[in-house]
Backbone:
């Protein structure tokens, strides 16, 4: 029976110099060969179709365009194979991050996984769509002067399609440039890119909350989020109290935006701390996820508030979800601060103000105190609403 409770020891293959050199050569090939080749072929394809011509109608070289499309397809396949070959040399980790890749830099497991995800997403969601769009444009006959079907329906899309494919090509090329630069980031830069994204998500939610409180039109990409405004008659007595609860969420959101902003910038545009480049993938992932959860939990809380506000009747279960989300958000925020305090390395200079030992307190202690005060107000209001007590007098 004791054997049933044995702990399985996770083992990892340590990179040899030969393996590290081979993987770095593969990463360099992706950066300096495959991606730049894709960019060049996209430019050649666009030029062969004469899409940017100032003439009313382009003068495409369709035969050359077809050849370039074929080459581009081959390059995409090579890129995909090479990116997937960067999979970590790990055995029996069962999806866990490496604890022994401190010295691997851009070849750390978490960073290679991120690079692979970026490349596969670009190929699957962007490059393939653009590839098919070019193919449709070539085979449709819209680019030829002797178009077999000169009807208005067939002719009208040509100019807009030319503009669209030019913009799509530029966007994909820009994405490739970002992927080329991705491995050049330090570990700190790698995490900062995620912090910037989380802050942008919170910015979007602030706009939505403001619109909801003020009664402005809302465009949240979801039909259910507009139902109440499309049907003014769908009201319930406690709806003004729901709006008040949403209003009490605004200070929390603003504090979280300040929190993320302090992770990647200062008023003079420079960071005041960094994380060590000697962190392993496991520690990097923990730090990254702890901070991600903060933004994610607030967004989940707001979604439940929005559903409660848009319903045609008061839903006490939804209020309970909000209360649960608030507790989770408080716990995650404290955990993220603890993780940051453990891993952050202050940068000492005259521009950075307080001594390094006090930097964490200077940056985050006031935010933590403000957050607790605002969360206490929000939680008390949520409890009152859960009990069916109005927060505002009608």
Residues:
């Amino acid at each position: 029976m004791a054997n049933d409770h044995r702990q399985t020891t996770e083992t990892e293959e340590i990179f040899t110099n030969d393996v590290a050199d081979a993987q770095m050569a593969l990463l360099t090939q992706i950066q300096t060969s495959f991606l730049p080749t894709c960019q060049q072929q996209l430019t050649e394809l666009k030029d062969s179709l004469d899409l940017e011509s100032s003439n009313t109608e382009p003068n495409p070289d369709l035969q050359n365009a077809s050849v370039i499309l074929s080459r581009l397809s081959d390059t995409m396949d090579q890129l995909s194979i090479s990116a997937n070959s960067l999979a970590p040399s790990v055995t029996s980790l069962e999806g866990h991050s490496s604890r022994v890749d401190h010295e691997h830099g851009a070849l750390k497991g978490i960073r290679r996984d991120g690079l692979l995800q970026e490349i596969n997403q670009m190929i699957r969601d962007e490059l393939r769509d653009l590839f098919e769009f070019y193919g449709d444009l070539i085979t449709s006959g819209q680019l030829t002067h002797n178009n077999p079907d000169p009807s208005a329906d067939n002719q009208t899309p040509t100019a807009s399609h030319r503009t669209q494919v030019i913009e799509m090509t530029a966007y994909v090329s820009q994405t490739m440039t970002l992927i080329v630069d991705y491995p050049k980031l330090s570990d700190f830069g790698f995490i900062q890119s995620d912090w910037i994204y989380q802050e942008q998500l919170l910015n979007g939610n602030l706009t939505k909350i403001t619109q909801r409180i003020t009664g402005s039109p809302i465009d949240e990409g979801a039909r259910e989020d507009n139902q109440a405004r499309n049907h003014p008659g769908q009201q319930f007595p406690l709806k003004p109290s729901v709006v008040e609860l949403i209003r009490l969420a605004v200070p929390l959101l603003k504090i979280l935006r300040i929190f993320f902003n302090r992770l990647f910038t200062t008023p003079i545009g420079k960071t005041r701390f960094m994380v060590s480049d000697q962190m392993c993938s496991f520690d990097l992932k923990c730090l990254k996820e702890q901070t991600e959860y903060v933004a994610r939990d607030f967004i989940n809380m707001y979604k439940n508030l929005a559903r409660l506000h848009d319903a045609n009747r008061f839903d006490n279960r939804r209020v309970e979800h909000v209360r649960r989300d608030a507790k989770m958000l408080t716990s995650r925020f404290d955990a993220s601060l603890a993780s940051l305090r453990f891993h952050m390395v202050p940068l000492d200079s005259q521009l950075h103000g307080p001594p390094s030992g006090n930097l964490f307190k200077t940056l985050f202690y006031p935010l933590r105190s403000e957050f607790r005060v605002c969360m206490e107000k929000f939680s008390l209001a949520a409890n009152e609403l859960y009990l069916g007590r109005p927060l505002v007098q009608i």
